[in-house]
Please model this.
Amino acid sequence: MALKSRHLLGLEGIERNDIELILNTARSFREVLDRPIKKVPTLQGQTVVNLFYESSTRTRISFELAEKRLSADAVNFSSSTSSVKKGETLVDTARNIEAMKIDTIVIRHSSPGAPHLLTKYLDSNIINAGDGAHEHPTQALLDLLTISEHHPKFEGLTVGIVGDISHSRVALSNIHGLKAMGAKIILCGPSTLIPREIDKLGVDISYNIDEVIENVDVLMALRIQLERQGTSFFPSLREYHNFFGITRERLEKANKPITIMHPGPINRGVEISSDVADSEHSVILDQVTNGVAIRMSVLYLLSGGQNVTEQN
Model:
């Protein structure tokens, strides 16, 4: 069984079978990460280029580790020290890199659709590591993997996504992924940060975090992305925290434990308080670990590999 596409550009329109294949393969690679020697020869001889036009810590290191764990040759690209500074276009940069006989490009770019554009000009596998405020598919996949470790099934599960929905590629990919898996989604945040007509994606909308907490099994806080906001969408960070911040006091009012998530980086004391981020119900560090396994899975499957469990 293999993925239906040779690229991972987003989760919009992705079939549940493909998501389950990626998750199951990631679970097998997750076991590799717990071994004393955290490396397999699966992609030996393959070359992966990490083409990052935006700053990144977790995603870039996670992809690089995934590539090395699979024994692929990893090459890192930084736009600040490249010919981009001399005016070279994205397509020309990518085509020149591909001419050096590489197999896969992992791209992060500020422009929505940049990964889709590359598929029209290149023969390499393309993986979207985040394109503007559009999608971030591997982040949503690692979120799905993490949720599945704490909840037996997605059907009947309610997930709350709280924060800067308008500027979040994580939110959009999670909406597509969670809907495909059968979960219910509630979006919450200031009205200025909830896109108009997003309810057409089949999600519920609330502007009251306390009501959301009462009705969810999983609560995902999103970072307030000040760097993407051209203007102020709320009076102050303090006011945002007062109305939408996830605090222990708010969670204690719920009649059940809630799984707490955050894609990072965390603005402590804004989207989420430190005592919640570091609490027993937080799976934030599990998300980071699962990110390596998910990216190993995606790299492996896009290279033509079958589900690891089928080969054992």
